[in-house]
Design brief:
mainly alpha; Rossmann fold; globular; about 190 residues; 7 helices; 3-stranded parallel beta sheet; 2 domains; about 40% helix
Length: about 190
């Protein structure tokens, strides 16, 4: 299982850009806490909620996100998918926006950047879904999803961000490419 936002896409950068455009807050901030308003100078909880609402009203917002993974990472992912040694699921907890469904927007983004038609599933309960699907290993960045996956017995790898460094005793990677390399050691 591969998460999408801040693993494949750079959602954080897009969110900071919207905050800057809307409120003039800095857009070169390191996100140290899961809640943006705790990391962005001048951003309040209420202001953050307004940015979430703006995202919700943006047509096909998820298709516009910049890439977080490199071209090399996406080529490695494409190769791994096409080799067929592992089944890949892209599981996200995104909320709906105007326009296409979350699944359609996410599929379109992955097709454009990775060059394959992915299996995309949307749920806030990633651990339970991964257990039901028999997923052996997962990559995520969100602290609450990491904890949920691990509590369901899913071997979980953490995409390293400053806001999840409090999570100890789990393997970490700094890139999608590093995760793909780890898969070579996972038996099917």
């Amino acid at each position: 299982m591969i998460d999408v936002d801040d693993v494949l896409t750079n959602f954080n950068r897009a969110f900071l850009k919207l905050c800057h455009e809307t409120f003039g807050t800095p857009n070169d901030v390191q996100i140290r806490e899961w809640d943006f308003y705790k990391s962005v100078p001048g951003l309040t909880f209420e202001m953050e909620q307004l940015v979430w609402e703006k995202i919700e009203q943006t047509v096909n917002f998820y298709e516009t996100l910049p890439a977080y993974g490199s071209k090399e990472d996406f080529l490695s992912l494409r190769k791994a998918i096409l080799e067929g040694k592992h089944e890949f699921y892209f599981i996200t907890s995104r909320f709906p926006t105007k326009g296409k469904s979350v699944e359609e927007q996410t599929c379109s983004w992955i097709e454009q950047h990775v060059g394959v038609r992915p299996v995309v599933l949307v749920t806030p309960r990633k651990g339970r879904l991964c257990k039901e699907l028999g997923i052996e290993i997962a990559l995520d960045d969100a602290p609450h999803h990491i904890e949920d996956l691990a509590s369901h017995g899913i071997r979980t790898v953490v995409m390293d961000w400053s806001y999840n460094r409090h999570i100890k005793d789990l393997p970490r990677v700094k890139s999608l490419g590093e995760f793909i390399e780890l898969l070579d050691g996972v038996k099917r």
